[in-house]
Amino acid sequence: MAAHHRFTLSVVSTPASACEARHRLLAQVRSWALPLEEETLSGIELVVGELLANAVRHGGPGPAEAVATWTGRDLVVEVHDRAAALPALSVPADDAECGRGLLLVDALSDRHGAEPTETGKRCWAAFDLPDSQRNGTTHRPIPDDEEKPVNPSAQPAIPVTQAESVVPRVIDRFAGRWEFLSNYSPAEVHLDQRRYPTVEHAYQAAKTLDTAIRERIAGTVDPDEAKLLGRRYADRADWEESKVAVVRALVEEKFRDPHLRALLLGTGGAELVEGNEWGDEFWGICAGHGQNTMGLILMAVREQARREAHPEEAKQLSPGGSADVSGSIGCAAQASIPTAHGTFTAWGYRSLLEGGEHLALTLGRVRDADRVLVRVHSECLTGEALGSLRCDCGPQLDTAMAEIAAVGTGVILYLRGHEGRGIGLLAKLRAYALQDAGFDTVDANSSMGLPADARDYRVAAQILNDLGVRSVRLLSNNPDKTAALTALGVEVSERVPLLVAPTIHSLGYLRTKRDRMGHDLPDLSESVAATRAERVS
């Protein structure tokens, strides 16, 4: 049957050229808008990669040729090279560094084979049209000028339809349209003046100080083979402390490429998540758990690129995809924070109108989640940094983190500017002096012409909205806080008590909060008595 579409590409026998050829050939196939499922297209890409890798490794001198042909009933991909020896299907030993490529071709394609040619050999694989579309199949006619090779530096590798132009709030699979985010995607980077075809190659090479092994990894086509070599010959004693910085530097170099940089910026404010099923909870997230270090690096590099491209707009975008509902808060930084209660992800927010800075600590997956355990915590320098016993702020923060760690998912909002329930540090110190003279915390504020509670929770509502939290279980003893957040549109499904042991120094303060401010603080006297007894014993 005559070919409906045919695309031919000459390939120089180097790993970097093979990766680029795979990318361009699949871009051309996708531009034909064939009636093939995404899973099939992903399999085609893997098969093309294996055939090209074999040609680079064993194809002899001179360039190879990659061809894709659509007949109307199947897609045939083939690679021509200069070597006469035909590949044979076999099962490699468990510790073999290569030999699995043909097994992959056999598993993913409907048919495959290899034949001698006048100049060497032809290796091919065929992918059939799905049974449901064999009769009456139609697809968009392609003008002749679209048969020309795709220039990836001049246009996106995958033509974007109107439906594809919509960016989801979360990108949690670096495949298909989002493959360019993967460290496996073709992108030349450098390590110690040596070129590598992907970030994965360079990352694996960085595990060893042996230059010969690095050279061997650089010459490997398949990133999985590079990974095998990197794991086998890793010899850096400082690797655990260095690996994040290594990846950050490589990813920054990767996205200096104008085409890839444009694709990265095209993800907008989507949360980038290295989703996986193989249990990697350091670089990604598996089954809802993980630090997502890779995703955080990508988002940080994206934010850096956005600042450079649009310095006046960069601070207005946040990891949730946009500024907050009022346009007055934006996320400016992200980092992993290891604590005694586990590793949290810190999101640094800046109030664009007032200039204040606030912090959100998240654990687990909170976006689009319901009944998330949340602590809206007010800054308290004296209670947290200095360990003052006049209040319960420090122990409450520590207990909240422990409770969130126990359930595995939650948010701590640390609100700056709330010192002394919103009156400020110096005013709080003056109020302390009045309390030492016999005033309670409410009357001390009143005597200075200040409100008992001057806190504003709009920032908290905006950050929760930005993080995509649907509803919260609020860790608080303060019903007024629940009412304030509810009035701001936060769905509080439950208020969870946050009780800590009082001290003889904080008892009067806590009684005032209970008796005059409506906080739920039962059994204060009994708790202090128990504390005194424990100290005496």
Give the distance, in angstroms, between the N- and C-terminal Cα atoms. 94 Å
Number of separate strands: 16
Task: From the 3D structure, determine the CATH topology of the largest domain.
Answer: Rossmann fold
Measured as a percent range, the helix fraction is 25-40%
- Gross morphology: elongated
* Helical segment count: 18
Compute the average pLDDT.
Answer: 81
Main traits of this protein?
single chain; 537 residues; alpha/beta; Heat Shock Protein 90; Tetracycline Repressor, domain 2; Rossmann fold; seven-stranded mixed β-sheet; five-stranded antiparallel β-sheet; 18 helices; 16 strands; 37% helix; disordered C terminus
Walk me through the structure.
With 537 residues, the protein is an alpha/beta fold. The protein is 37% helix and 18% strand. It has three domains: 1-130, Heat Shock Protein 90, CATH 3.30.565.10; 199-308, Orthogonal Bundle (Tetracycline Repressor, domain 2), CATH 1.10.357; 328-536, 3-Layer(aba) Sandwich (Rossmann fold), CATH 3.40.50.10990. It is built from 18 helices and 16 strands. The strands form four sheets. A seven-stranded mixed β-sheet has the order 10-11-12-14-13-15-16, with helices on both faces. It has a five-stranded antiparallel β-sheet with strand order 1-2-3-5-4, covered by helices on one side. A hairpin with a 4-residue loop joins strand 4 (111-116) and strand 5. The termini are far apart. Residues 94-98, 135-164, 314-327 and 529-537 have low confidence and may be disordered. In the N-terminal section; belongs to the DHBP synthase family. Belongs to the GTP cyclohydrolase II family. GO terms for molecular function: GTP binding; GTP cyclohydrolase II activity; zinc ion binding.
